[in-house]
Specification:
heterodimer; A: alpha+beta; Gyrase A, domain 2; Cyclophilin; 2 domains; four-stranded antiparallel sheet; 32% strand; elongated; B: alpha+beta; 4 helices
């Protein structure tokens, strides 16, 4: 896959995959893994996001030109081993107004029933495009355009932990209580970020996520919390 | 055995060298903002390089020693006193159990580092003790220091009393030139806009913090308003639609969708973290090769200034 490299700082190179989003996201995920394996001590950190990958390195150990050469080589190899498509993780969701206070408004705006919103949201396999905003927060896409919905004009100060939400054509689960402006549909009882055990997150960029509707009883049995 | 927090001051945080390899989980780098002052704090105390110290913003911290040890304060000029006796900064001082340590408000600079012999003994999270309040990670409980906190540290009876001579200490001025490696969406800023960015003075906004320094100046226009969210490196200079630059620092979010004109050199963002609201920043473009040379020189000279021993 073609990549474009750009020096973006004294210690950072940005790598852009030149391909349609679907394939490029998997490629970026695979490339991030191989960079982590191969670069060793010179690598400081990595940020895969959609079709780009930021590589932060130690400029005392490597120059921009040497690092760019190495990245180009790794990109060529990752492109060859491209079948890495990411794993699929299923996340249970209790869809209901008591768990996601915007679901009825979102359904009304879309001219759909709540059941149809649930069916549309849980019938698709989503790709993890990026992780950021908060520890363990995964940007998933794309939702069916019938249930796409703009962010709230005024973000909420507190969105409950586990909230499943939509903003435009993106969807996500809030791993912890945080401020947020996305539309809430329900709640997921799965722990999405655990600083004390490995793996810290069930998903990585390039993986796939499927949502599975569960009942209130199942949600509570799985450790989910309602106010 | 600890130092007990009597008053935390404006904002005091346990920090170290920060985290690596955690951006894929969405975690910030964190760590001391002024790594030069932080490095000297540990060098003076003869500690391992990334030992945990307190980053004091603005000042007002009061501690009580519950152990015999040594302390050192570097960075911003915050008057230090032990049992009401004035003590020099950039100098190792002995404290005994019961002593009261007071760090007053900054006379110049914005951030000081108070270290203790062998560093504070805090359990690292993701390889670091650095506190990120927004993430609830690091430090004692993921929060800023509060009255009553006990900062664990060992009893130390012997340590050379080192000092950085006054002439060698950094002087924090009210204006600063920040070197920038242009990059990211640089080509979306016209030549006129780039000339404005690299020519005009910018003032530090009071809304600056550990995530980023917000600057106020002539608006810099970009021919795009948003980009697909992408990774943000340390020092990246984001230009939101209002044209007012934000220099992103250690607690920055890992990804963002505003255009960026380049990234400030780490040596200069360290100094920038000593600027208070109203101070003036100029930007100067440099090449990646020049930036690397500057970092190498800092490693050999700036960070290796000779320390003096105070006769017993």
């Amino acid at each position: 896959m073609d990549v474009r490299l750009l020096c973006v700082g004294a210690d950072a190179i940005m790598l852009y995959a030149q391909a349609p989003q679907g394939g490029a996201v998997a490629f970026i995920g695979a490339l991030a893994d191989s960079i982590e394996r191969e670069l060793g001590g010179a690598l400081v950190d990595l940020v895969p996001s959609y079709t780009s990958l930021l590589v932060i390195y130690d400029p005392l150990q490597s120059s921009h030109t040497a690092m760019a050469r190495q990245l180009r080589q790794l990109a060529r190899n990752a492109a060859v081993a491209q079948e890495h498509a990411g794993k699929t993780v299923t996340l249970p969701v209790y869809y209901a107004a008591e768990a996601g206070q915007d679901i009825e408004r979102l359904a009304d705006n879309a001219g759909l029933g709540v059941d149809e919103v649930i069916a549309l949201h849980s019938s698709r396999k989503y790709r993890v495009y990026a992780i950021g905003f908060a520890p363990g927060f995964a940007y998933l896409g794309d939702v069916d355009e019938r249930i796409a919905c703009p962010r709230l004009a005024t973000p909420r100060l507190q969105v409950p932990r586990g909230s499943v939400a939509i903003a435009e054509r993106q969807t996500a689960v809030y791993p912890a209580v945080s401020p947020g402006g996305w539309n809430l549909l329900g709640r997921c009882p799965t722990t999405l970020f655990n600083p004390h055990s490995k793996p810290h997150m069930p998903v990585a960029v390039g993986d796939n996520v499927r949502f599975e509707p569960i009942t209130r009883t199942e949600f509570l049995r799985m450790g989910g919390e309602l106010e | 055995m600890s130092l007990r927090v009597v008053r935390p001051g404006v904002l005091s945080l346990l920090q170290d060298g920060g985290r690596r390899g955690v951006h894929r989980l969405g975690l910030a780098t964190a760590g001391a903002l002024d790594h030069e002052a932080y490095l000297y704090c540990n060098r003076l105390l003869q500690n391992p390089a990334h030992s945990t110290a307190i980053e004091i913003t603005a000042g007002g911290l009061q501690l009580q020693a519950q152990v015999d040890t040594f302390i050192c304060l570097t960075g911003a000029a915050m008057p230090l006193s032990i049992n009401d006796a004035a003590c020099d900064g950039w100098t190792v001082h002995r404290v005994c159990a019961g002593d009261s340590i007071h760090v007053d408000y900054a006379v110049s600079g914005a951030r000081a580092y108070l270290g203790v012999a062998d560093g504070f003994a805090v359990t690292p999270v993701f390889g670091s003790t650095a506190t990120v309040v927004r993430e609830g990670l690091g430090g004692l409980t993921g929060a800023a220091l509060a009255a009553g906190d006990a900062l664990p540290c060992p009893a130390i009876t012997r340590r050379r009393r080192l000092q950085l001579s006054v002439a060698e200490r950094p002087r924090y001025q009210r204006q600063l030139t920040v070197r920038v490696v242009p990059g990211y969406q640089q080509k979306h800023f016209s030549r006129i806009e780039q000339r404005r960015f690299f020519g005009a003075p910018f003032e530090v906004s009071p809304h600056s913090d550990r995530m980023g320094y917000r600057l106020i100046g002539p608006p810099v226009a970009c021919d795009i308003t948003a980009i697909p969210s992408e990774g943000i490196c340390a020092g990246a200079i984001q230009i939101p639609p209002d044209g007012q630059p934000i220099v992103l620092l250690a607690d920055r979010q890992t990804i963002g969708g505003y255009p960026k004109i380049g990234a400030a050199l780490g040596l200069d963002t360290a100094r920038m973290a000593q600027l208070t609201a109203g101070c003036v920043v100029h930007f100067a473009p440099i090449t990646p090769a020049t930036a690397r040379r500057a970092l190498q020189l800092a490693q050999r000279f700036t960070y290796q200034r000779l320390l003096q021993e105070i006769p017993a």
